[in-house]
């Protein structure tokens, strides 16, 4: 790959290393199905080395611990500057590795990364404890200390963005990191290693170990010297991680998992807005979003018109080469996901949903699936219950608000929800009633660094973004000092 | 001339200590669900003992999975949108908590007597300290109820964004036997304050005060199903809670070993949120420039309080070399001539350990201390022919590799070790997988604040020990826990 600064090795102590085992693994371009390159494959010994480095960088008296908080913030700002400088390179790498349309990688993924870094850069010197009016003659205050060595396991749907969502608050609060990017999409994470070094983060503060879940990932979640783990991925793996954290050393855990997110369109909604938002909400990123609007509930009166307009949108959606500026939808990430989506589409047909458009793969070669719309979907169908993670929009009908609240909440997931209505009372009532970490009103996927994001129920534990992420990366210490007499 | 300060800031006034109730009748021995008393589904009961004389106090209905299921159903219903509890004003929730505090105050004597008999706790301690803390914690959380604020967030783009801090839902709470009532209140108070409903499993050794609280909760006017109490054992009722698919959060205080099982169960079942308050091997660091009398006294109480059965016990005392011998001498003086006996009687300074299992574990660790070469300064064995009493024991010349320096003893056994330099003692103090509390005694401000930063502990005390209050957050670094209480 003729890209400057991109090293395909393991990043520890600001240096590039071969894997201890000597093994490498390939990464593919899902649009062309061709291998892009081979990457050093990290496993337990490499994770151990990374953790040692991260631990040393976190020692009392180490440069990272002695650094003023303001300087930590400045380093994060500089990193944002370098991302801006290398924006085209990173967007290109992300597109090659994930198949997402280049313009989306450039304008959405990279934008989110830069803004999130700058947001947390600003927090670095504002991590405040409290003074506490305790009974009797004591001075009592809390310190919000960094937790220590944080493991971060990131997914393949937004590789760089999901990494920055973890890296930014972790570094802002003074922690050190050991990162394992998804094996399908390691390139942008490795590139950021070189930027970390260029910016001037001390060695050992950020370490990156590419590899697989059951090996490198498991080594992180079971590690006795990792103080906290943050994971974004499937609910199934999230459970294994929390279990491993418990069995090992009770490391603190935050999880961002799956969703089966309800999108509720009331009869008084702005119909064009609702159709467009619901469409982008489910089809964005090839349907590969934890926030995908994969259960669209439409009030009876406007149902036929809503379906008609949604089908028009879906039919217009341009699927093709992600480097083509006109493309809106690229390929799915790999064969496994592709097969799973087609299987769920078949189940929709079999279980009696009405296939309005799409419903099959696009060509014999490649991982492209036609934007698919199902109507007459009922709650017991697999496409209404299971996370599809593909370009499939199930549309269902509802009569009353009470009914739709009950149906919307009737899932173990609870990541996001959306409501389309002009009625203030209804909007605010639904905002309270929906069991979701985020409720969007008259919009979709409005995600910004300032607003906390995370799941109710089995969509996750804890929150990313906003001020709330700081609590996930700090450990509270209470200091109580006795005075000889009580002072007010 | 009167000092201006002395009138406006009086010393804390403790109530006068009454006599414990004679012939305390145990009225509440059943499972509390929906403000009603239920027999166990299985029909089984279990026995509750007085550790001071090993005699049976009474029998209590034994809850198991089926009873937990009933309780969770009731708690879920009470949490439904539109229910009385969900539609209640936040301020009203606060008023109910204050009312509960009033009732605890009214029945202070009953509860203190019961806690002393069931838990082997000194009556004076139960009445003044435990009950005092319960009342204060209820009032503290009562005050927060209508101050659970979300935020408005200046998000990019043309959006209006705000956060809501909603109750989590049905909270399972598993309570230990060392401070049964205080730990019960530490869990239900913040949970109810925030609008959750709870299913509580008190320790099988000490269920009585929790069950009594059921009657007060009903009397205070909490709607049915908001608080449910299922006495029973860990592997049955406790596990049913931690594995339950309809419990949204589990809070546990107890051993690190069981804490790990609970978090694992949470991960395996439904990813319920977890907070844990676990064990400790807390370092207490005494510098040569400390006020020696104060340090000796705090180190003593910091270890021996409640027969050493505290998660925060200062069980590794590091004394700076120059004052080591004198410190050991004074500590022995303090620990000798203790009156052990019936914790209800005035003049008794130490009660029994909670049960046979703990009793044997502590004696085994004392033996290891002797075997591994620590110097036994006083105590070192059991006391009396009935009840689980152990003599206050002091070991000096303890080194870091001994079992008594590494393992949590949870008994009246004090370890005193020597140190030379600051860097050395910081390293040794932090050299443990625990991280609950720590203390430093020094008059030097630089040293004090440096240790406050360097010690890996959730609470650091300076020139005191065990100073806890409802306002201060409490919890562990590392394997001493996840999350904070208070």
From TrEMBL, chain A:
GO annotation, biological process? aldehyde metabolic process; retinoic acid biosynthetic process
In this protein, the active site sits at 256, 290
| InterPro entries, A to Z | Ald_DH/histidinol_DH, Ald_DH_C, Ald_DH_CS_CYS, Ald_DH_CS_GLU, Ald_DH_N, Aldehyde_DH_dom, Aldehyde_DH_NAD(P)
Say where the protein is mainly found. Answer: cytoplasm
EC supergroup of this enzyme: oxidoreductase
Q: Which CDD domains match?
A: ALDH_F1AB_F2_RALDH1
What GO cellular component term, any one, is given? cytoplasm
Relate the protein's function as given in its record. Catalyzes the NAD-dependent oxidation of aldehyde substrates, such as all-trans-retinal and all-trans-13,14-dihydroretinal, to their corresponding carboxylic acids, all-trans-retinoate and all-trans-13,14-dihydroretinoate, respectively. High specificity for all-trans-retinal as substrate, can also accept acetaldehyde as substrate in vitro but with lower affinity. Required for the biosynthesis of normal levels of retinoate in the embryonic ocular and nasal regions; a critical lipid in the embryonic development of the eye and the nasal region.
Q: Which family does it belong to?
A: Belongs to the aldehyde dehydrogenase family.
The protein here is known as: Retinaldehyde dehydrogenase 3
Could you tell me which species this protein originates from? Ciconia maguari
Gene behind the chain: Aldh1a3
UniProtKB/TrEMBL annotation, chain B:
Concerning Pfam families, the annotation shows:
Aldedh
Could you list this entry's UniProt keywords, alphabetically sorted: Lipid metabolism, NAD, Oxidoreductase
Report the active site residues: 277
A GO term for molecular function: retinal dehydrogenase (NAD+) activity
This protein's pathway? Cofactor metabolism; retinol metabolism
Q: Could you tell me which PROSITE patterns the record lists for this protein?
A: ALDEHYDE_DEHYDR_CYS, ALDEHYDE_DEHYDR_GLU
| Keyword Metal-binding tagged | no
Q: Which GO terms describe its biological process?
A: lipid metabolic process
Domain (Aldehyde dehydrogenase) spans: 37-485
EC number(s) reported in the record? 1.2.1.36
Q: Which InterPro entries has this protein been placed in?
A: Ald_DH/histidinol_DH (IPR016161), Ald_DH_C (IPR016163), Ald_DH_CS_CYS (IPR016160), Ald_DH_CS_GLU (IPR029510), Ald_DH_N (IPR016162), Aldehyde_DH_dom (IPR015590)
Keyword presence, Oxidoreductase: yes
The UniProt catalytic activity note for this protein reads:
all-trans-retinal + NAD(+) + H2O = all-trans-retinoate + NADH + 2 H(+)
| Family to which the UniProt record says this protein belongs | Belongs to the aldehyde dehydrogenase family.
How it assembles, according to the record, is:
Homotetramer.
The name on file for this protein is retinal dehydrogenase
């Amino acid at each position: 790959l003729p890209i400057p600064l991109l090293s395909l090795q393991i990043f520890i102590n600001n240096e590039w290393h071969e894997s201890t085992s000597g093994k490498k693994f390939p990464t593919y371009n899902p649009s062309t199905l061709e291998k892009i390159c081979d990457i050093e494959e990290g496993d337990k010994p490499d994770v151990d080395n990374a953790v040692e480095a991260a631990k040393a960088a976190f020692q009392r008296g180490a440069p990272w611990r002695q650094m003023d908080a303001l300087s930590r913030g400045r380093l994060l700002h500089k990193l944002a500057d370098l991302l801006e400088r290398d924006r085209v390179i990173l967007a290109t790498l992300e597109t090659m590795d994930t198949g997402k349309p280049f313009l989306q990688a450039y304008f959405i993924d990279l934008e989110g990364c830069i803004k999130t870094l700058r947001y947390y850069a600003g927090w670095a010197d504002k991590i405040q404890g409290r003074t506490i009016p305790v009974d009797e003659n004591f001075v009592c205050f809390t310190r919000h200390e960094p937790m220590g060595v944080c493991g971060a396991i990131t997914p393949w749907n937004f590789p760089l963005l999901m990494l920055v969502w973890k890296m930014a608050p972790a570094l802002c609060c003074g922690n050190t990191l050991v990162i394992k990017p998804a094996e399908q999409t390691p390139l942008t994470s490795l590139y950021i290693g070189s930027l970390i070094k260029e910016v001037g983060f001390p060695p050992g503060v950020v370490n990156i170990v590419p590899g697989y879940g059951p090996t490198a990932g498991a080594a992180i979640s079971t590690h006795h010297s990792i103080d906290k783990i943050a994971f974004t991925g499937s609910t199934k793996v999230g459970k294994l991680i929390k279990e491993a954290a418990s069995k090992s050393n009770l490391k603190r855990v935050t999880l961002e998992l799956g969703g089966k997110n309800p999108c509720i369109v009331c009869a008084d909604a702005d119909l064009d807005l609702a159709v467009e938002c619901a469409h982008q909400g489910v089809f964005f990123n090839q349907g590969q979003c934890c926030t995908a609007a994969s259960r669209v509930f439409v009030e009876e009166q406007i149902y036929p018109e809503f379906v008609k307009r949604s089908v028009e949108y879906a039919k217009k959606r341009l699927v093709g080469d992600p480097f083509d500026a006109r493309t809106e939808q690229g390929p799915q990430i790999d064969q496994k996901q592709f097969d799973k989506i087609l299987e769920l589409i078949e189940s929709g047909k079999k279980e009696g949903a009405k296939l309005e458009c799409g419903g099959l793969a696009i060509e014999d070669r490649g991982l492209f699936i036609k934007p698919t719309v199902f109507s007459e979907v009922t709650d017991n169908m697999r496409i209404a219950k299971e996370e599809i993670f593909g370009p499939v929009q199930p549309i269902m009908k509802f009569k009353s608000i009470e009914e739709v609240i009950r149906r919307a909440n009737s899932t173990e997931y609870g990541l996001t929800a959306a409501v389309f209505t002009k009625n203030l009372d209804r909007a605010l009532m639904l905002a309270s009633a929906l069991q979701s970490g985020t409720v969007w009103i008259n919009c979709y996927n409005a995600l910004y660094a300032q607003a906390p994001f995370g799941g109710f129920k089995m969509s996750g534990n804890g929150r990313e973004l906003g001020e709330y992420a700081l609590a996930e990366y700090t450990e509270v210490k209470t200091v109580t000092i006795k005075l000889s007499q009580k002072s007010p | 001339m009167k000092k201006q300060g002395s009138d406006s800031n009086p010393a804390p006034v403790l109530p006068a200590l009454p006599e414990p109730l004679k012939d305390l009748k145990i009225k509440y021995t059943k499972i509390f669900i929906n403000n009603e008393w239920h027999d166990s589904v299985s029909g089984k009961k279990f026995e509750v003992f007085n550790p001071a004389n090993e005699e049976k106090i009474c029998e209590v209905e034994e809850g198991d999975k089926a009873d937990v299921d009933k309780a969770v159903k009731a708690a879920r219903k009470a949490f439904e949108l539109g229910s009385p509890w969900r539609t209640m004003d936040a301020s009203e929730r606060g008023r109910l908590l204050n009312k509960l505090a009033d009732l605890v105050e009214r029945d202070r004597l009953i509860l203190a007597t019961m806690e002393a008999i069931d838990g082997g706790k000194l009556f004076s301690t139960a009445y003044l300290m435990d009950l005092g803390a319960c009342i204060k914690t209820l009032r503290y959380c009562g005050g927060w109820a209508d101050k659970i604020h979300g935020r408005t967030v200046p998000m990019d783009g043309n959006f209006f964004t705000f956060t809501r801090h909603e109750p989590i839902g049905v909270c399972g709470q598993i309570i230990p036997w060392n401070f049964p009532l205080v730990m019960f209140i530490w869990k239900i108070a913040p949970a109810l304050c925030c609008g959750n409903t709870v299913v509580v499993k008190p320790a099988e050794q000490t269920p009585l005060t929790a069950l009594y609280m059921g009657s007060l909760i009903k009397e205070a006017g909490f709607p049915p199903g908001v608080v449910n109490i299922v006495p029973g054992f860990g592997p049955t009722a406790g596990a049913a809670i931690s594995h339950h698919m309809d419990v949204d959060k589990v809070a546990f205080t107890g051993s690190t070993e069981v804490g790990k099982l609970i978090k694992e169960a949470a991960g395996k079942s439904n990813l319920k949120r977890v907070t844990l308050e676990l064990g400790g091997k807390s370092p207490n660091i005494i510098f040569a420039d400390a006020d020696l009398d104060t340090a000796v006294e705090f180190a003593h109480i910091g270890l021996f309080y409640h027969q050493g059965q505290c998660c925060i016990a200062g069980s590794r005392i590091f004394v700076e070399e120059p004052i080591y011998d004198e410190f050991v001498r004074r500590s022995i003086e303090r620990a000798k001539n203790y009156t052990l006996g019936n914790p209800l009687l005035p003049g008794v300074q130490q009660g029994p350990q909670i049960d046979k299992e703990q009793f044997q574990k502590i004696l085994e660790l004392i033996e290891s201390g002797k075997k591994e070469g620590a110097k036994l300064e006083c105590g070192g064995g059991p006391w009396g022919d009935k009840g689980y009493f152990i003599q206050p024991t002091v070991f000096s010349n303890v080194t870091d590799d001994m079992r008594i320096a590494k393992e949590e003893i949870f008994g009246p056994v004090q370890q005193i070790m020597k140190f030379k330099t600051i860097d050395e003692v910081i390293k040794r103090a932090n050299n443990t997988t625990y991280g609950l509390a720590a203390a430093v005694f020094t008059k030097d401000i630089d040293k004090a604040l440096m240790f406050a930063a360097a010690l890996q502990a959730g609470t650091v005390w300076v020139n005191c020990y065990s100073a806890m209050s409802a306002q201060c957050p409490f919890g562990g670094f590392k394997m001493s826990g996840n999350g904070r209480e208070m």
